[in-house]
Amino acid sequence: MIVRNPFGQNYYAAVPTKLTRSLRVNLIWQLFRFLVINIKMLRMVRKH
Amino acid sequence: MARLLILGGGIAGQTAALHARKKLGHQHEVIVVTPNSKWNWIPSNIWVGVGMMKTEDVTFDLAPVYKKSGITYLQAKALSINPEGEGSSSTPFVTIEYTSPEKKGVTEKVKYDYLINSTGPKLNFDATKGLGPEKNSYSVCTPSHATEANHHLQESIQRMKKGEKQTLLVGTGHGSCTCQGAAFEYIFNVEYLLRKENVRDKANVLWISNENELGDFGMGGMHIKRGGYITHSRVFTESLYAERGIDWITQAHPKEVEKTQLSYETLDGEEKTVSYDFAMLLPPFSGVGLKAYNKVGEDITPTLFAPSGFMKVDADYTPKTYEQWSPKDWPETYQSPVYKNIFAVGIAFAPPHAISKPTVNPNGIPIFPTPPRTGMPSGVMARQVAFNIADMINGKADEPTRKASLARMGAACIASAGANMLNGTAVSMTMYPIIPDFEKYPEAGRDLHYTTGEIGLAGHWIKFLLHYAFIYKAKANPFWRVVPE
Ligand SMILES: Cc1cc2nc3c(=O)[nH]c(=O)nc-3n(C[C@H](O)[C@H](O)[C@H](O)COP(=O)(O)OP(=O)(O)OC[C@H]3O[C@@H](n4cnc5c(N)ncnc54)[C@H](O)[C@@H]3O)c2cc1C
To answer: Mean pLDDT, to the nearest integer, of B164-171?
Structure first.
């Protein structure tokens, strides 16, 4: 949400595009990310 | 026969008790002293605070679990430690006071051979005037706090449905708070709920914290590789706040919480106020206030504990500047340097210093987050300490051999940003190491290969699964050891 407020906090923040936001809840893409995140987390667990 | 006494049956204490029990033969005794009759999966209290879960969903009775596991359970709180015994006896003991309805108020001395202090934090609401559920703000630190917060949140939502505007303030209630991640999860779950209830346009959702910048989380934030850049978590965090229309106040030390107004001091030394209709503000943490006495009854609390009330372990507590900090300052075995049969794990151990760079305002008030000790590292250090003690009891080692330094440990963390199986999101983060090491990783202090972050629905699924997995494990159900810490 880019607010028309040139010196406001939100104005300078990077905001996601529509595509990025839809991928965040896209079931097929997220199923793939689910696997990737789990692998990353397991890698972390195995480092202990 | 040896006796391992564990103070505190939370995330760290439960992990240590179950692992120790598995490693020790039944001629040895494992005792847990903890004041509550129920175990609580604290991370899911966030969802109790927005009405998505009930107290029963995040707690279970401890007694049956300890009974089936062969662990002695004393529903009591520890008051003091006598590490040298008393009078003519040199057997160390802990004085406890029962909290169970049958024995409430009765005190007893419990002897030990090895002691693990995993008493977690005292929720220090008194640090800020007017802070806390008994005064003028709400909390989600316990199931009852979260239930109350949800009750008042729902009242605010009803007002919005009638057309009233509401300001909801969420964050930290003192300049020295930790656990920003929990407040972060709460504000995004509240924001999600407001959208679900179709009242988002009626709400001004506002963040306040003691972080220097958003995305610090008490760890100085983290850098990750993304889109051809090495980017600080501040960028991603600000992005999420901007996307969800949440304004933020950082570098704030709340001084007084009134019914509808918070007064705070900034890092510049300015005095400011902010008005609200609903405020969920986390308290700062301190140690639970255990005392220690030597053989002749003299108070030796400062020998065992830091002024914060957390227990001193094998860390380097020499006062140092930020530039002098080293990963080597952090403890490895969590053993007391004075009494070698005492250990402290989870939130109960005293960190040698912060992780975020300390900052003090012109009036001398420190405004920066103290270091977080989240669930995964708390569990790992508890397991390692339990294994070390079991080895020493079983005669396999004379001293702790396994190490669990936060400077050589990674963390995986999922922060909920809206709970729904189809359109919820969560931020999934991994980082290695937890304590930045600028000698080894001069670029960003951490290994950029292992330090990652992303937001999406998959994170929510994992968070949801972890809720059940960790409760399953804490109940010591079959194959509980398969679930990692
Ligand atoms: C709202 C919230 C959300 C969180 N979310 C996450 C998350 O998503 N992920 C994550 O990794 N971490 C999260 N955390 C942090 C996590 O809860 C802690 O890291 C973890 O609980 C620390 O474990 P512990 O055993 O040290 O302390 P605790 O779990 O607090 O356990 C301490 C135990 O000691 C007992 N005790 C207290 N005083 C005494 C006494 N005098 N004698 C005996 N026993 C005593 C207490 O009753 C308690 O059972 C969250 C914290 C909060 C508050």
So the answer is: 98
**B239–A16 CB contact, under 8 Å:** yes
Residue ending a domain, choose from B372, B407, B442: B407
Q: Each residue of A1-48: pLDDT tens digit?
A: 556 678 888 889 999 999 999 999 999 999 999 999 999 999 888 776
Which domain range does residue B50 map to? 3-123+285-407
Q: What is the pTM of this model?
A: 0.97
Residue numbers of the domain that contains A40? 17-46
Distance (Å, whole) CA B15 – CA B93: 22
Same domain (yes/no): B254, B366: no
Distance from Cα B474 to the centre of ligand 1, integer Å: 13
DSSP-derived secondary structure for B356-388: SPP-B-TTS-B-SPPPP--HHHHHHHHHHHHHH
Whole-number Å distance, alpha carbon B119 to ligand 1 midpoint, is 8
In angstroms, the CA B199 to CA B82 distance is 56
Contact B456 A15 (CB under 8 A): no
ipTM of the modeled complex? 0.94
The CATH code of the domain that includes B372 is: 3.50.50.100
Q: How many CB pairs under 8 A join A and B?
A: 92
The structural domain count of chain A equals: 1
Cα radius of gyration rounded to whole Å, chain A: 17
Contact A10 B412 (CB under 8 A): no
The residues lining ligand 1, judged by C-beta closer than 6 Å to any ligand atom, are B 7-13, 33-36, 42-43, 45-46, 77-78, 118-120, 140-141, 179, 182, 288, 346-348, 373-376, 378, 413
Q: What are phi and psi of B346, to 5 degrees?
A: 70, -145
Q: Which residue's CA is minimally distant from atom 32 of ligand 1?
A: B120
Number of domains, chain B? 2
Q: Same structural domain for residues B201 and B228?
A: yes
